[in-house]
């Protein structure tokens, strides 16, 4: 017997219509590439999203066609999120930090038909357009009178001219909720990148989940700053959940340095911000020395890479900002777990609570997870036993776009992360499986070693990698970047580890470097670091 409830497909167009009807004057504030600040409302965003849909119809662009973007976080990008997906096309957010050859490879693989790009990416588009064989329309995200002459890009049009004159009403199609809505290629450090192809259904379910109190807890009273880019996993789904709950949205544009982000947080009364640790490092690097405070910011989601304890501590104890440590990946839309305490933890002393906050957190309803051993058997949830982390759920990929074979293991997606899960369901990542250090048959967590180094007052950043060792197979070393004007000697840093981890886990050496190589999404690139240190020899080997 079927239920007798309405069979309404879960569609992205419904989000922008909801925002228009129910959050009419809710504000969207964007710092633009031009340097000024643009403001408008959800109702204006909705009207212009419908104009985007008309502009795509006018091109006779088929349903399912890919419309790519190379853009910062801003209002025009938001309009494309809704106009492209809502009208049945697939929004393909390209990562502008990738090497131009990779951008070409990805655009051709995705068979992008349209590319909308911010003015700052004009040189990149000029360098790649001749090799992008499927793109038939280039749109620059600017006013009609700002379009430069002689760009060399055939048929280039300004966004404002492209949508100007299009009607602001639109009859959104009633698509299947399983239809593709957007796509994102993984940052993939080896081989060609692979794409996750999200659906309307997966996106809406993820938006519902991410707004829940023990997840991001978003509401109409929040002013939300996604520093996490809209070109990487849809800014963790924030544009969608923001339209759902009607919060104020604040977009940083290209200005991601600590000073600019701080000023925006204060000027726009930001209560909630989301980003990767490297961004918050820059923010704290500005706020600390200038003795600044946050007036309204009360919580921040930090994820995409392990959040160092020193960062959680600084936000909580110096600035009164709650840090929510989150874990996820491109293949998971991206949210998988988020760390909030349970009722029974509230009475624990601060240092005990801290041990929990450091973990990547509990599975969000919709995501199921397990850890498996080398023999493929599920491992116990005892908080000690490591295993390969696998997940499943309605916003986890089933297969890659144009991928060969299934990535799944018995219905579960292997994340490539190694983790423990404690009896309360808190998952803790110890490493990417390829970064695990095996010393004398025992595993050493590189994240633990990095976290300790970053707790030292003179250290800005740390990356731990394993080096070949004749006796122990591998031994850890830690590459560190010192804070400006700070000094620490190798032996003193090694001493700093004593008592914090077992003796045999303490790194064999410290290598001082100018910078740790970062990938296109702001994560440490250990493959590159290994390359840089290929002539390095362990003192203990
Ligand atoms: P991406 O698909 O590029 O977003 O990368 C996903 C990967 O980032 C995960 O598989 C993890 O290895 C890593 N990651 C994401 N969040 C965290 C976190 N909170 N702690 C440690 N690693 C993380």
Structural descriptors:
alpha/beta; 9-stranded mixed sheet; Luciferase, domain 3; GMP Synthetase, Chain A, domain 3; Rossmann fold; 3 domains; 541 residues; binds adenosine monophosphate
Walk me through this protein's architecture.
The chain is an alpha/beta fold and 541 residues long. It folds into three domains: 12-255, 3-Layer(aba) Sandwich (Rossmann fold), CATH 3.40.50; 368-432, Luciferase, Domain 3 (Luciferase, domain 3, Roll), CATH 2.30.38; 437-532, GMP Synthetase, Chain A, domain 3, CATH 3.30.300. Helix content is 28%, strand content 24%. It contains 16 helices and 25 strands. The strands form five sheets. It has a nine-stranded mixed β-sheet with strand order 2-1-11-10-12-13-14-15-16, with helices on both faces. Strands 7-6-5-3-4-8-9 form a seven-stranded mixed β-sheet, sandwiched between helices. Helix 1 (12-22) runs antiparallel to helix 2. It starts with 11 loop residues before the first helix and ends in a 9-residue tail after the last helix. The structure holds adenosine monophosphate. Residues 186-187, 233, 303-306, 325-327, 329-330, 334, 360, 415-417, 429, 432, 521 line the site of adenosine monophosphate.
